Amino acid sequence: MPHIHARYQDDDGVYDLDGNCIKGKLPRKQTRLLEAWIELHRDEIEANWNLAQAGEKIFRIDPLK
């Protein structure tokens, strides 16, 4: 299943591309920011997922500013 790993200070979590937590946890504010970031970068995230599945190098996606 496509997912991303997110970290904030000492917290980390794994989230699907709808922003649902699969494992771990981030603070509420950071979870909302992550959901916004996923919406802004969904195409890039999906492209990275496809690269990773093919064993290729993924590219950096800009953080929220």
Structural write-up:
- This protein is α+β, with helices and mostly antiparallel strands.
- The chain has one domain (3-53).
- 40% of the residues lie in helices and 25% in strands.
- It has 1 helix and 3 strands, in the order βββα.
- The protein has one helix at 28-53; strands at 3-8, 11-16, 21-24.
- It has a 3-stranded antiparallel β-sheet.
- β1 and β2 form a beta hairpin.
Summarize the structure.
The protein is α+β, with helices and mostly antiparallel strands. 40% of the residues lie in helices and 25% in strands. It has one helix spanning 28-53; strands at residues 3-8, 11-16, 21-24.
Label this structure with key terms.
65 residues; alpha+beta; 3-stranded antiparallel β-sheet; 1 helix; 3 strands; 25% strand; globular
